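Q: What structure does this chain adopt?
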Amino acid sequence: MRERLVTSARTLFARHGFEGTTIEAIARMADVSKPTVFNYFPSKATLLHELVLRADSNFFQLVEAARKKRDTTSARLEYFFQRLGELTQQDPGLSRVLMVEAVKSMDGQEGAALPHRFGRTEQALVDLLQDGAKAGEVRKDYSVQLLAQLMVGAYTNILLLWLADPNHFPLHEKLQQTADFLAEAIAAPG
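A:
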């Protein structure tokens, strides 16, 4: 039942946005009563929270998969950005909702999903960069924390541009270029 409700919420949030989706519509799509929805999720925001947790889990799995690749830091970054773009494009409507809610969380709006997400995202990338630093592949004149923040910023900006015009913005190409640029920018001089 929980999975049916999450699937219904994901579909409706992607189609109509968070604000445009009602608990009644989620119940209807899941073929349950409204009280049944509340037995599993006390509010629409908790359904969104569940989707955020799942998206974050996917993000962290991608970082871990990149870290496990026996390759250069540059190649790991390229792999990570490529897979992240593919994941984002699988469900553009949901990606939009999650990005909007992430932006809302930055100014502490009530009901915003997980305001601490960006710190966790940054830390996952710090771990990837620390692996590269240990291998002597990442520059040492800037902290890995700053480099990770710049990566999050670059990805977020590319994603926002794509979400503004998903039909005409070449997400895959821009992420590839971003990965290439970042790989050069973080590389240890040599």
